[in-house]
């Protein structure tokens, strides 16, 4: 699964989630929601299909944590 995440400044980055980990994140990641994400890996963003042409991408791992961010 590949996603594009955007921060509050509008900067975007590609995210890759291995097929074996989709079950862990598919309910948590919803379009338009804000999240706090921790414990992920960075990798070079190479290959023939790239949603964004950034130099790097995020890879979710079994240790990645996703929590809905609630603003006050």
UniProtKB/TrEMBL annotation:
Positions of the Replication protein A 70 kDa DNA-binding subunit B/D first OB fold domain: 1-67
Which interval of the chain is the signal sequence? none
* Record InterPro entries: NA-bd_OB-fold, RFA1B/D_OB_1st
Q: Which domain of life is it from?
A: Eukaryota
Pfam families the record matches:
DUF223
Q: Which CDD domains match?
A: RPA1_DBD_A_like
SUPFAM superfamilies xrefs: Nucleic acid-binding proteins
Q: What is this protein called?
A: DUF223 domain protein
